[in-house]
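Board work, copied verbatim: Gluconate:H+ symporter
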Amino acid sequence: MILTVIVLSLFLLIVLITQAKINAFLSFLIVSVISGILLGMPLDSLILAIEKGIGSVMGSLMLILVLGAMLGKIVADSGAAERIAAVMVQLMGEKYIQWGLMLTGFIVGIPLFYGVGFVLLVPLIFSISYRYKLPAVYIGLPMLAALSVTHGFIPPHPSPVALVALFHADMGVTLIYGLLIATPAIIIGGPIFGMTLRNIRPKHELFFKPVGTEVGSDYRVPSAWISFLASLFPVFLLIIGTVLPYVIDTDNEKLLSWMKFISNPTLVMLLAILFAGYSLGIKQGRSIKSIMEIFDGAVRDIAMILFIIAGSGVFKQVMEDSGVSLALANYLQTLPIHPLVLAWLITAVIRGCIGSATVAALTAAGVLLPLATGGHIHPSLMVLAIGAGSLMFSHVNDAGFWLFKEYFGLSVKDTLLSWSIMEAIVSVVGLLAVLALDMIIT
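↓ predict structure ↓
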C-alpha cells in the first residue's frame, strides 16, 4: 500500500507539472495533501506537516539562496563575467579555445544561475565562432556543459544547497567533492565530446552584440583579477573553512568557534556580497542605490525557485511524518542495487519525465531521504548522486533543450545529438565519479 501511494504520488506530480501545466509549487502542495490523506495521516497533523516542511527547509536555505542570487546578478551586471571570459579566451588561444570556454563556463557558472549564464555567454560563443570561423556548437558546448554541471553539483546553486540541507550534509565538504566530481564530467562531456560535433552547424546565422556592450558607459568594467576574486570568493572561503580545522591542531575552543562561525555558508555568502558590492559596484563608480536595485532584481528572479523548494520541503515532511520514510528505507535497503546508483536512477527517471533538473532533484530527495539517515551513505555523496541524476538526458520537455536549440538555430535531431547527449554524458560520468569517491572515502 505504501509503495503504491508513493508511485501514484510521483505519477500525479509528473502529470500535474507536464500535462496540466500547473506551477511546480502548487503541484507539490496538491500532491502532498493527497498523499497525506491516502497514507492515513490525521488532518490536523497533515496541516502541521505542511507548515513544518516549509519552515524547516526555508529556514536554513533562504538566506544562502537569496545572497547567492545577488552575487550572481552583480557579477553579470558589472561586466565581471565578460571580463573573465575575455581573459580565458586570450590565455588559451585559438588552438585550445574549447578549453578556454569550458573554464570560463565553470568559473562564471559558480555564482551565476544557469539561465543567466547561458544568455550572458552565448554572445561570446558566437563572437568567437565568427572570428575564428569555427562551428558554434563545437566551441560552445564545453562552456554550456560547465554551466550545467555547476548548476547540478556546486553550491550556492539552489538544488545542491537544498539537498545539502535536506540530507544534513556539510556545505564545504559537498563543495570540495562537487569540484572533484565536476572536473571529469565537464572534460568528457565538454571538449572531448565536443570534438565529434564539428559538422553540426546552425540552419541560420545569429548575430549578437559584441561582448561588453551590455555594461553602461557610466560605469567602469572591473579588472580581471577583481572579477575572478569576486566570483570565486565564496568558494575560497568555504574551502578554507572546511580544510582549516584539519590543518590547525588546536585545543583552543574559542578559536575553533570563530573558525566555524566564519565558515558558516550564510556568513560566507554575506561576506561575498559585501566584497562584490564594493569591488564590482562602488569601486567601479556605482552608487549604493544602483547596487541595491541589482540586488532587488536578483530577489525577484529567484522568488519562484524559493517557492518550489518550499513545496518540496512539504512533500518531504509528509513522507516523514506519515511513517513512509521508515518503511521505504527498510524496503530500499533490500534492493540488490547500490544506494547511490538507486538515487541517481530515481532522479534520472523523474528528470526525464518532468524536465526540470531542480524539481527532479528535490522530488527524488523526498523519497530517498531515508537512505542517507541510516549512516551507511555519506550525505554529501548522496547529494551529488542526486545532482548527477538530475542532469540526465535533457529532451523536449526541458526549457534548456529549447533554449539551446533556438539560440544555436538547430533542428530537433541535431539538438538531441549534441545537447541531450552531452547532458547524458555529464550525468553518467558524474555518477561514476561519485561511486569512485565513495570507494576512496569509505
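The radius of gyration is 22 Å.
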